Each structure stands twice: as structure tokens, then as C-alpha cells.
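Researcher: Next entry in the queue.
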Amino acid sequence: MTVLRAAAVTGLTLPRALEASGLDGGCALLTTPSAYRVASVTGGTCRTPEGVVDLSAVYEARVFTGEAELRWTGERAVLLAEDRASFPPAFDEEVEDLEALTTLDNHYLLWGVVDDSVSPGPGWVALSSSRVGRLTVPMATAVPRSEGHHRRVRLLTREYVVVGDDHGNVHVAEERLIGFETYRAKGIA
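Model: Structure for this entry, 189 residues:
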């Protein structure tokens, strides 16, 4: 059995929640009314290859490392992790733990393939597709050129499976974002 721990804090702006969470080096998914951005996190700032992101219009953020995820909406921040010892003192509001029967490691393939015509800088990879345009994502390791035109990136997640109280069926009750990794489709030469 795996337990997903959670704690919250109310009244923090996004920059303060980022600082309090201690998720330096993590990735951030930032939602504003006019844009969706993927950024890296350093202290209370989020950065893209173009520079520091203005967080004033962000109304929802998911910030994650391999060990924890911060979810921020408005002025409420919730931190999720399997190890409560990693929770910073600022996250002092109790949130009910989730006791999972099992966990499933999952992934989502991102749109686009690695675009070598764009150089977003060290620690970043640019993906391009005709359907969604260009997306840059923070990646600690480069996507090997040996993969040719099949170089892809996927988002890793962990799903927490529980038994439903009302019906006894198992279902995924929660999903925590983990990070990005390179991917090559199986069976493609």
C-alpha cells in the first residue's frame, strides 16, 4: 500500500507558494486566460527560454519534481508527496491522506517531435507539430540525435488506485505529475 500525503496553505501568491514549496529545479505548467506555458522553476520564479514569466495572470499552476507536486489555484496551494518529511513548514493545513491499493506509472506523449532548427538553449528541448505549433519543455538530458525524426518527449505521471467506498470498484483517485523523458515509439525504424 502506498500513501499519498498532502498539506495545504492558504493566502499565498504563486511566487510565494513556489518559494515555500522548495521545488527548485522542477517544471511548471502555467495556465492564464490567453496562454498555456511550460516553465522551469527557480526560487519564486518561473522561466522559459525567453526569460522570466510574468505570473500575475496565472490562475492555475501545477509544479512538479520526481518527488512532489504543488497545485496552486488563486490563493490556495496544495503539496502532494509520498514522504511527509519533505513538506516545508509553511504547508501546515492538514489534507486527508490517500491510501492507495497500488500505484501505476503512466505517461502522456506530447505533441510534436524534437525540432533541431530551434535552439531554445541548454536544459530545454523544442517540439514542433503542424497541429499545435511549437512547444518548449525543460529537460535535463538532450534527446539523442540517433533517434532521427522519431525523437519524442512524454510526461510521466503516477496514478494512485483505490477501492471505492460506495461501490467496491477500484479506480484511479489521484494522479501526480513526475517529469519529462525522451521517448522513441516502439516498432518504428
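Model: The chain has a mean pLDDT of 89.
Researcher: Noted, moving on.
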